[in-house]
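Hi P.,

Sorry for the delay on this. The queue was packed all week, but I finally got your sequence through. Input first:
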Amino acid sequence: MKNKYFILTIIVLIGGLLFLGCDNNREKKVEDAQEDVLEAKQDLKEAEMEYEKDWQQFKNEAELKIIANEKAIDEFKAEIRTASKKFKLKYEKEVIALEQKNYELKKKIIEYKYEGKDKWEEFKQSFNQDVDIVGNALKDIFSKNE
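Then the structure:
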């Protein structure tokens, strides 16, 4: 009989230890999860700050390119005013089209909303290509003029 009670006591002690061990493990998992959430929030803040910095730099550079295009367009418009009719007819439509594209680029940069890193990279690439197209077209017109 003593053996029965001794074995029963040992089983209860082992069961109790297992139960307490599982409970501590849960608390550790909760603490780990809370740490993971804090790290994720910190990573998100850092990513947002990095995006904001990248956005401001990109926007400033894009605005400078757009302004440079506007100046070139204005210079060419001034040349057109004093040029012959043949010259006016030849280049006036091109300049108006480039002016419109430049305006659309300005509008595009103002209206852009962040939709994720992939879309952002796609936007930057597309926008830079469009700005370069306008800039190169303006340079081509000036070189044809000379």
